[in-house]
Amino acid sequence: MSANTIKTDSLMPMTEIQIQQTREFVDSLQSECQTYWDMVNVGDELSRDLHITPELVILYADAVEDYNPWYEGWKMNTWYVPGESPFGGAIVPPLLVSHFVLSVQFDHTKPFAIGSIHTFHESEILEPIPVGATVRITARAIDKFIKRERRYVRHEVLVTDVRNGTLYFREVRDILSR
């Protein structure tokens, strides 16, 4: 190993592509980056579709330790089953979709926006989402404001069913931008 070779953490070995992507990301931080405030205009809207599979629900529920039989749209050795809840079949943990908002809110086609912090969100759960649904998560910038000499961008988020248009979830969230 040469003196110029950067070592990776031996406790978390990375593949060559992970090493390359990490180095590219760190190098990009050295370049001139826009702030989130500069990148977003009021009225900007981004959306993405998300198919909520039983596997995704299992991964989320395990990660947040929310073990509820209402979320189980699967069974060992059978795999997919309709599941049971007071709403009929298996439903999605209520805040799972909130977890995916940031993947919609930030435009992945633009350079990384430095200095952004998620400071506020208010969620409204309107209908249970059935496991297996495909939802559209739409984030629209609705305001830019300054409070205590700090700049904020406010977004309204709507989560609707792609197939029938049911509005499942609404959220307002603020991003502090340096």
What does this structure look like?
By secondary structure, the protein is of the alpha+beta class. It has a domain at 36-65 and 91-177: Hotdog Thioesterase (Thiol Ester Dehydrase, Chain A). The protein is 22% helix and 33% strand. The protein is built from 5 helices and 7 strands; from the N terminus they run ααβαββααββββ. It has helices at residues 16-30, 36-39, 54-64, 96-99, 101-105; strands spanning 45-51, 74-75, 79-80, 116-125, 134-147, 150-161, 167-177. It has a 5-stranded antiparallel beta sheet with strand order 1-5-6-7-4. Strand 5 (134-147) and strand 6 (150-161) form a beta hairpin. The radius of gyration is 20 Å and the shape is globular.
Keywords, please?
178 residues, 33% strand, two-stranded antiparallel ribbon, single chain, 5-stranded antiparallel sheet, globular, alpha+beta, 7 strands, Thiol Ester Dehydrase, Chain A, 5 helices
Beta-strand content bin: 25-35%
Order of helices and strands: HHEHEEHHEEEE
The number of helical runs is 5
CATH topology-level name of the domain at 36-65 and 91-177: Thiol Ester Dehydrase, Chain A
Total DSSP E strands: 7
Span between termini = 40 Å
What is the correct CATH architecture of the domain at 36-65 and 91-177? Roll
CATH class of the domain at 36-65 and 91-177: Alpha Beta
Catalogue the unreliable spans.
Answer: none
In one word, what is the shape? Answer: globular
Which whole number gives the mean pLDDT?
Answer: 86
Major sheet summary line: 5 strands, antiparallel
- Lateral strand order in the biggest sheet: 1-5-6-7-4
Q: What value does the Rg take, in angstroms?
A: 20 Å
State the CATH superfamily name of the domain at 36-65 and 91-177.
Hotdog Thioesterase
| Fraction of helical residues | 10-25%
Structural class: alpha+beta
